[in-house]
Each structure stands twice: as structure tokens, then as C-alpha cells.
């Protein structure tokens, strides 16, 4: 069972991006199923007792007094950041024990959608076609526009929820398809993304 974290690299943080959404999936006898996919704010809100935010957060995000999961990637060392993430994650009411954490960024999102095609979320179509408003993939423009939209409450999940829903639909389309339809190109793409550090791993080794 694994926890996937989506890092939005349009909101830069030390490990490569702001932790915006997560999903939990399990592999059982070759069958992959998605147990949950939602906004990181939902997971953060399930932590009842929070510590005071560390100095970097208090300095640059003065309206965020508490230490949240979405802000735990303060070290460029991914393993160190995920150690902090795990410690806080284990105090969440929505905690689920996992065998490892995998982080993905927007480069992976575009690469996978190049294979899977357009994705429908909430009646809206997201694609990798170039959007003239930004000269970038339309899905990236929508994510940036959503992230930059002014909000009254910094805890609002409205601007982030798109990513959790998008993750779910992408994973569902990939995992529910016939292996011969997408899996070959997806595996080849995964190796490339891993080599370029767009996919990061922090896996538990029970034999060490």
C-alpha cells in the first residue's frame, strides 16, 4: 500500500513543489486499486493537535501559525522531509499505514496525459493541448489559474481540490485499462520521469 503525493512545482518548495493532494493505492496479487484520493487540506484538517509552525513558515507564511503536512517538505533532502511528513501524518485521524511514499510533479502529469489523453473532471475537460494564454499545456494553465485565484480563507480547499480529483481520474483510467493499451508506454515514461527526479520515492524497507 502506497501514498502518492502530488507536488505542484508551480508553487516552489525545497523538494520540488507544494504538497497539494494525495492518493492511497494498494497492489494485491497484481490488482491495483485506489482507496482514496483527496486534497491535502482534508488530511491536514484531520489532525486535531498541531505544533507551532517552524520559523521558515512563520517568516514567509505569517498567516499559517500551525505546522501542517503540506508544509513539511522544508528540506531539499526528500528522505528527511518525508521523515517529518510521516511523524505528523501518523497523528492524523485519516492516517492509513502505508509501505512507502511516492511524490509526483506536474511534469509527470503532462507526460502521463500525453499517453492517456484528455481527462474529464467535474464536467470539465483537461488536456495537454497548448493553451495560447500561457503557451503551455491547458491542464497546467488551469492548475496555475486555480492556485493563483484570490481566496478569503487560506484554509479554503476550493482552489486545491481540482488536483485531487484529477489524480483520481488519471489513476483510475490507467489502472482500470487493459495492460496492453497503456501500460507499456506508461512504464517507459515512468523510468524516464524517475531518472529526471520528477518521481521521488521514500519506501519502507522492512528487511533493514
By DSSP (H or I, 4+ residues per run), the number of helices equals 7
**What's the main sheet like?**
5 strands, mixed
Low-confidence stretches: 149-159
Helix content: 25-40%
Strand content: 15-25%
Structure description:
- Helices cover 38% and strands 23% of the residues.
- It has 208 residues and is α+β, with helices and mostly antiparallel strands.
- A hairpin with a 2-residue loop joins strand 5 and strand 6.
- Helix 4 packs antiparallel against helix 7.
- The two termini are 19 Å apart.
- Residues 149-159 have low confidence and may be disordered.
Write a brief caption for the model:
The protein has 208 residues and is an alpha+beta fold. The chain has helices at 40-45, 55-60, 78-89, 106-116, 138-148, 161-175, 179-195; strands at 2-8, 18-28, 31-39, 100-105, 119-121, 124-126, 130-131, 136-137, 199-203.
Break the fold down into its secondary structure elements and pairings.
Layout: E1 2-8, E2 18-28, E3 31-39, H1 40-45, H2 55-60, H3 78-89, E4 100-105, H4 106-116, E5 119-121, E6 124-126, E7 130-131, E8 136-137, H5 138-148, H6 161-175, H7 179-195, E9 199-203
Parallel strand pairs: 1-4
Antiparallel strand pairs: 1-2, 2-3, 4-9, 5-6, 7-8
Attribute tags:
38% helix, single chain, 208 residues, alpha+beta, two-stranded antiparallel ribbon
Amino acid at each position: 500500500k502506497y501514498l502518492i503525493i502530488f507536488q505542484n512545482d508551480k508553487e516552489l518548495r525545497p523538494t520540488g513543489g507544494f504538497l497539494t493532494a494525495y492518493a492511497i493505492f494498494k497492489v494485491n496479487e497484481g490488482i491495483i486499486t485506489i482507496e482514496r484520493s483527496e486534497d491535502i487540506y482534508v488530511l491536514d484538517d484531520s489532525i486535531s493537535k498541531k505544533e507551532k509552525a517552524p520559523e521558515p513558515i512563520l517568516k514567509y507564511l505569517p498567516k499559517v501559525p500551525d505546522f501542517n503536512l503540506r508544509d513539511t517538505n522544508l528540506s531539499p533532502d526528500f528522505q528527511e522531509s518525508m521523515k517529518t511528513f510521516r511523524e505528523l501524518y501518523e497523528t492524523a485521524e485519516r492516517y492509513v499505514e502505508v509501505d512507502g511514499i511516492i511524490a509526483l510533479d506536474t511534469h509527470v502529469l503532462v507526460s502521463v496525459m500525453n499517453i492517456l489523453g484528455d481527462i474529464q473532471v467535474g464536467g470539465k475537460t483537461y488536456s495537454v493541448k497548448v493553451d495560447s494564454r500561457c503557451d503551455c499545456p491547458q491542464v497546467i494553465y488551469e492548475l496555475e489559474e486555480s492556485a493563483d485565484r484570490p481566496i478569503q480563507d487560506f484554509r479554503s480547499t476550493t482552489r486545491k481540490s481540482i488536483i485531487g480529483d484529477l489524480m483520481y481520474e488519471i489513476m483510475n483510467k490507467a489502472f482500470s485499462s487493459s495492460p496492453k493499451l497503456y501500460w507499456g508506454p506508461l512504464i517507459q515514461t515512468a523510468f524516464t520521469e524517475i531518472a529526471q527526479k520528477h518521481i521521488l520515492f521514500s519506501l519502507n524497507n522492512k528487511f533493514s
